[in-house]
Design goal:
The protein has a six-stranded mixed β-sheet with strand order 9-14-13-12-10-11. Strands 4-3-2-1-8 form a five-stranded parallel β-sheet. The chain has two domains: about 5-360, TIM Barrel (Alpha-Beta Barrel), CATH 3.20.20; about 380-540, 3-Layer(aba) Sandwich (Rossmann fold). It is built from 20 helices and 14 strands. β6 (about 225-230), α9 (about 245-255) and β7 form a beta-alpha-beta unit. Helix content is about 40%, strand content about 10%. With about 550 residues, the chain is of the alpha/beta class. It has helices at about 5-10, 35-45, 55-70, 95-105, 105-130, 160-170, 205-210, 215-220, 245-255, 270-280, 280-290, 300-315, 320-335, 365-380, 415-420, 465-475, 490, 495-500, 515-525, 525-540; strands at about 10-15, 45-50, 75, 130-135, 180-185, 225-230, 265, 295, 380, 395-400, 425-430, 445-450, 480-485, 505-510. The chain starts with a helix and ends with a helix. The longest helix is centred in the first third of the chain and has 22 residues, at about 105-130.
């Protein structure tokens, strides 16, 4: 291989999981097919990270990409909550914080759930052709204002995060996939989303050793295949460069101090914390200098490849440094492609994924039962009693979401809409940060459903002031009948104990349709009995 071909293997680009150009949802980040084919076939990039589409779409997409490649590709996805989190049709688990909640009363059960979650995620990933799971998150979310990690973490305490992450890795290791501990050295104690800006972790060496680092040590001991760096500035270790670009942190700490020998992958290079400060070319070179093996999601892989090659030519980076990363990449690829060897130009036929039988391999009954059990075991119920209302009452199902146009879990067919409708509640959807909130009338009997959680690019992970003001108006008017919160437990904590003693409420970590169904069936259970009794009386 020449130098450019070697460097290209260090690059993983983003692609839509959908098949056709007119289906691309994020054209700024996802290339059309002709450009993607050029990157894979001519540049020889090392892998692809996917977002969007169904599981069957993705399986077909992976076959297409593999047919273009001369060297088997790494196929990655951020499937922290199961394959179904990103690709419809597969199993979608509740967020990891739900399992952490169960651990408060039954650690053994929680560890079992985490291991099963890892195993099912890996099994379904392999079924559709994915071979790199960008999970588990091993950040300790000890900052309730964290807008990006939030309930993606396995808890708020160091020991619990380490135990549950280790169980997830153990489950996934039953299948030929790579796992990833992220985001080194810990993104849990920030109130800034690194997708937009550069967070600063001001903690001392002793504090990092006590809180942030132990889960990574646990994950490395468990045999995690890769570690993703965080776009964080940690002055205790490096006053100038963020972790992703810091040789002191990636090589000095992760490699030398903690002895990690697997793949080091950057967080996405398109993120604001890096892209806005360094530009793609310099960030790519700095990341390689730091000791990184995989450059994830450069906006233009040619810029990255050329910049790193120029740095080698100029003597800034040695070619032996590139060869070190290449050897780790080969090691990872031979794990997920056990019959392939470097230098073998032919990719064996068995890498093609048969899509016709995926229905039998995805969302199987055991997986669905596990999802339901985690939801039921982590749900919280309290407050007053939901009494039947007169038939002439004007009932409203007010649904707050963070992004109406990008809510894959909501629609006219989903339980959050259909179940309340059975009881006369007419839906009204509104965004949590919308100015329209101020114009909503508080004079209708209202079931309030809140879909609020931390997410990348989410900006906020709690109720806005306008949303809080509306809820107070509903309370003063006596029109708030009930409250259901899906997502972040930190939203639940925004409500006063007095409110929660008077209004029937349910909190559920999951937001997917299965979570909605479980929460609403529980919420309306007594009213269902009353309704059935009334219907029965009308016929006697």
């Amino acid at each position: 291989m020449n130098l450019a071909e070697k460097v290209a293997q260090m690059v993983v680009v983003r692609s839509s999981g959908l098949l056709f150009d007119d289906q691309i949802l994020y054209p700024d980040w996802e290339p059309p097919n002709s450009k993607l084919q050029y990157w894979v076939q001519d540049l020889g990039i090392g892998g692809v990270i996917f977002v969007g589409g169904s599981a069957v779409d993705l399986a077909t997409r992976i076959q297409q990409l593999q047919s273009w490649a001369k060297i088997p590709l790494l196929f990655a996805a951020d499937i922290e909550e199961g394959v179904g989190q990103r690709f419809a049709g597969a199993t979608w688990f509740p967020p990891p914080m739900a399992i952490a909640a169960i651990a408060q009363t039954n650690l053994k059960k929680a560890q079992g759930y985490a291991e099963t979650m890892g195993a099912i995620t890996a099994q379904e990933a392999v079924a559709i052709g994915l071979n790199w799971i960008l999970a588990p998150v091993v950040d300790v979310n000890n900052n309730p204002d964290n807008p990006v990690i939030n309930i993606r973490a396995f808890g708020e305490t160091t020991e619990l995060v380490g135990q549950l992450a280790r169980a997830f890795i153990r489950g996934a290791q039953q299948y030929p996939v790579l796992t990833t501990a992220k985001h080194f050295p810990g993104h849990g104690d920030t109130a800034v989303d690194s997708h937009f800006d550069l967070p600063v972790i001001p903690h001392s060496e002793s504090r990092l050793a006590e809180v942030e680092l132990p889960p990574f040590v646990e994950a490395i001991a468990a045999g995690v295949d890769s570690v993703m760096s965080a776009h964080l500035l940690i002055p205790t270790w490096d006053k100038e460069l963020p972790a992703t670009l810091s040789q002191k942190i990636i090589t000095g700490k992760l490699r030398q101090k903690f002895g990690f020998e697997g793949l080091v992958v950057t967080d996405a290079l398109v993120m604001g914390a890096i892209a806005n400060r360094y530009g793609l070319a310099e960030a790519s070179v700095l990341a390689v200098e730091a000791g990184t093996d995989i450059l994830l999601m450069p906006l233009d892989p040619e810029v990255t490849i050329n910049a790193v090659c120029d740095a080698v030519t100029q003597g800034r980076i040695s070619e032996s440094r590139i060869d070190e990363s290449l050897q780790r990449i080969w090691q990872a690829k031979t794990k997920v492609y056990p019959t392939w060897q470097p230098g073998n130009e032919k990719i064996p036929d068995y890498f093609s994924v048969p899509t016709y039988n995926l229905v039998e391999k995805l969302a199987q009954s055991q997986a669905q039962e596990t999802v339901a059990q985690i939801l039921q075991d982590s749900i919280q119920v309290g407050g007053g009693y939901l009494a039947p209302n007169a038939d002439n009452q004007d009932l409203r199902n007010l649904v707050f979401v963070q992004d109406i146009l990008n809510s894959s879990f909501l629609g006219n067919h989903t339980p959050a809409i259909t179940i309340p409708k059975k009881f006369g509640y007419q839906p009204q959807l509104i965004e949590n940060n919308s100015e329209a909130i101020q114009g909503l009338t508080p004079h209708r009997l209202t079931l309030l459903q809140l879909f609020i959680r931390g997410n990348p690019f989410g900006k906020i992970a709690s109720l806005t002031q306008a949303s809080e003001d509306l809820i107070k108006r509903l309370l003063r008017s006596g029109k708030l009948q009930g409250l259901i919160i899906y997502g972040s437990q930190y939203t639940l904590k925004q409500f006063s104990p007095k409110l929660l003693s008077e209004i029937p409420y349910i909190f559920c970590y999951g937001q997917m349709p299965k979570a909605q169904a479980i929460a609403l069936e529980l919420f309306f259970k007594d009213l269902e009995v009353s309704l059935l009794t009334k219907i029965s009386q009308n016929f006697t």
